[in-house]
Amino acid sequence: MKFLHLLSNEASQSITLHCLNNAAVGSIGTTHREMSRIRFHGWNKQTFEKGTLLEPHVVQDECKIQDGSWHQSRFVFHTQDSQQLPIVDIQEVPSSQLDRQQHMEIGPVCFL
């Protein structure tokens, strides 16, 4: 990993949260506090979260649709500090309840 970091000027990665009746980013039925809870920790231990300089770009937010079907929220991380990626830890993902399910799909890192 160190070799890739040394040779790269920037990096990008995407993470998709697949959800069934479970809001991920902030939508109907979630408070502002719940919206900004999800945090992503990078390789160099910096935190990506809503409302900070390292805020992930939300490309798609369909998890707010709670109609009994599977939907997804997609987060994209792009940085000019390649040592911030890959994402190594995700904290405070909205918890699943009996009628709610979710799973995470971690995409590969592209070092440029």
Could you characterize what this model shows?
- It comes from Oryzias sinensis (Chinese medaka).
- GO terms for molecular function: extracellular matrix structural constituent.
- The protein is mainly beta and 112 residues long.
- Helices cover 9% and strands 40% of the residues.
- It contains two helices and eight strands, in the order H-E-H-E-E-E-E-E-E-E.
- It has helices spanning 2-7, 32-35; strands spanning 11-20, 39-42, 47-49, 57-61, 70-79, 87-91, 101-106, 110-111.
- The strands form two sheets. Strands 1, 4, 5, 7 and 8 form a five-stranded antiparallel β-sheet that branches. The chain has a three-stranded antiparallel β-sheet with strand order 3-2-6, with no helix packed on it.
- A hairpin with a 4-residue loop joins strand 2 and strand 3.
- The protein is elongated and about 45 Å long.
- Residues 27-36 have low confidence and may be disordered.
Descriptive keywords:
single chain; 112 residues; mainly beta; 5-stranded antiparallel β-sheet; 8 strands; 9% helix; 40% strand; secreted; Fibrillar collagen NC1 domain-containing protein
Unreliable spans are 27-36
Mean pLDDT: 84
Order of helices and strands: HEHEEEEEEE
Largest sheet: 5 strands, antiparallel
What is the first-to-last residue Cα distance? 13 Å
Strand fraction band?
35-45%
User: Structural class per helix/strand content?
Assistant: mainly beta
Helix content: under 10%
